Amino acid sequence: MRIGIDVGGTNTDAVLMDGSDLLGSTKTPTTRDVTSGIVTAIERLLDRPDARALTAVMIGTTHFTNAIIERRRLAHTAVVRLGLPATQSVEPFEDWPDDLRDAIGADAYLLHGGNEFDGREISPLDEDQLVATVQELVRAGVEAVAVAAVFSPIAPQMEQRAAEIITREAPELALTLSHEIGRLGLLERENAAAINAALRGLAAATVESFRRSLAELAIGAPLYLTQNDGTLMSSEAAERYPVLTFASGPTNSMRGAAFLSGLDHALVLDVGGTSSDIGALVNGFPRESALSATFADVRTNFRMPDLLSFGLGGGSIVHADTIGPESVGYEITQRGLIFGGDVLTATDIAVAAEMADIGDASRVASLDRELVGVYVALMQRRIEDSLDRMKLGKRPEPVIVVGGGSILVGESFAGISDVVRPRNFAVANAVGAAIAQISGDADHIFALAQFTRAEALDHARRLATERAREAGAEPETIRIVEIEDLPVAYMESSMLRVRAKAVGELMTAAPHARTEG
Length: 517
Fold this sequence. Notes:
The chain has helices at residues 35-46, 63-70, 98-104, 127-139, 157-169, 186-216, 235-240, 248-261, 332-335, 346-352, 369-390, 428-434, 453-471; strands at 2-7, 11-18, 21-29, 53-54, 56-60, 77-84, 107-112, 144-149, 174-177, 223-226, 231-234, 266-271, 276-282, 285-286, 293-295, 298-300, 308-310, 316-318, 323-327, 397-402, 416-420, 437-447, 479-487, 495-504, 512-513. Among the domains are: 73-200, Rossmann fold (3-Layer(aba) Sandwich); 309-432, no CATH class; 436-504. It is built from 13 helices and 25 strands. Helix 2 (63-70) crosses helix 6 (186-216). By secondary structure, the chain is an alpha/beta fold. The radius of gyration is 24 Å and the shape is globular. A hairpin with a 3-residue loop joins strand 1 and strand 2. The longest helix is centred in the middle third of the chain and has 31 residues, at 186-216. The strands form six sheets. The chain has a nine-stranded mixed sheet with strand order 3-2-1-5-10-11-22-24-23, with helices on both faces. Strands 12, 13, 14, 17, 20 and 21 form a six-stranded mixed sheet that branches. A four-stranded parallel sheet has the order 7-6-8-9.
């Protein structure tokens, strides 16, 4: 039995599931501190006679995303780049917004080290130089360090040796190694590692607050956080890699949409209280973006789902000639017209158009019918255009509609073969968290002088499978859900980049009985 929780900008949704059966669900306004809203949602679910034995609690949270966007609770962070005498033309943090640089301190050090694409050293790691740098970091009050070596995803040994030295000299520093976070592309990988490092202190405090909350609720089941690829990581891993939770909300919704609808290949439209997200399912998992992800105006290359977001949700404020992107958010039940407020929202329009039956419809009965039709057409057109942008071909595709704000969505769209609204669509995000699996990834470059293509693919499959098993997946359930190979351009010899992803069911121990407090 599992509890799945997803924290959105407007609501915190939670479900209690026993295998594939949904036993209960709840939706509560997201609180400013986030944690108290999670506790409230869990308490509501636990007020049931069938909620006695839990095997796991899964949480999808916006804590870390919000911290970067709002520039708060970030650690004083430094980047140590291993690449001299190369890599001097663009320094670390060069493309960061000034306010984000100020928020984390953004100290930068360039040291000797790094490798070529084939693993050859650019220059040896100067360990004495690194020790002196660590001493300087401590004197400067640095709290977190990101280490980025040239081509470390291919040859991680130099980053790993640097980590040993830093930990030995200053064990209090929170450390992030770039090859564990990002992919090929030094600057983007370095940026991703720096963001992760800046969040390490907050991640430790947040996860500990979750653990305390579960303990106070007499829950002894293990805690997991959802990742942005639609799978889980342990609470201990979340403390080390908080950046991997970015965009986990939309991916939870997509996984929930696949589970509730039974469709593995479809578009997913998730309409919340503030905004909408559109993604595509491939083999039941979110299609991954092939582009470098820009987050908080910083280019990164850690994995991100291929999403299109736009400012239309149930709480979107209606203006004279448009709807949104401003929203009343979680205050919709106080400020929306149908709930006794004085703000005209997209939900009010949906009720006035008889697309939904919630609140007090008499409060919008006086709205001009022609104007209501204009606003409905505007929402329809915005959704239709966004769906069309996410399609990869001209053939009509089905769309699964989920989220509490999906009352705004019509029954048909141009280019869409079917509009599917599965049962329990309003809590698909929490369902996605509850049924999430464990994953393992491999991303390597192979020299075709040493490996055939088939051998390279097989090696990547085995590595991804082993990493899924190590992360806690039940071995018998592990399967490969994604594999791709691409020739590496502009190399003297033939090189092949192979990426593989394996997923499996969470290996759970015996259920943890909930004790009476």
